[in-house]
Amino acid sequence: MGITLIGILDVIVGLIFFFGGIALVVAIPIIANNPAGYKVDSNSFEFRLLTSWSGYTISGGLITLGIVDAGIGIGLLRGKHWAWKLAVILAFVSIAIDVITLMIKSHISNYGGSIIGVMIDAVILYYLYRPHVRDYFKKSVPTGMASSPE
Prior knowledge:
Blueprint lengths: L1 H32 L11 H6 L2 H25 L3 H24 L6 H18 L2 H8 L12
């Protein structure tokens, strides 16, 4: 049941990242052409960052992450060993990003999301490393590979 929940959440989060990346690609030129109309300071660092090539790089990253995350979710739902490995890697990367975000944020009121993110990813990692969960995913490893070191 836990794997089903994590798999479904990965698919949902993947779709959110995917469509968020697409929305950003569409929004960048619209906001860039009329920043005052959207109450955006055209001199801000964020505006200059997002309206440069970096904005499209971020969009592409979100789209890619969305596809990967949805794929991991589908793999988890199907009990694929590769999906377990990628879910573990993604959880560690997410924790690292949340910790970095905590270190660079300037307003203490913004810490909540990063702290919650670390806690959620820690719970996911804990669950994925439970013996019964690891055994479930080892069943999908081709014969002869199950005893190989990870």
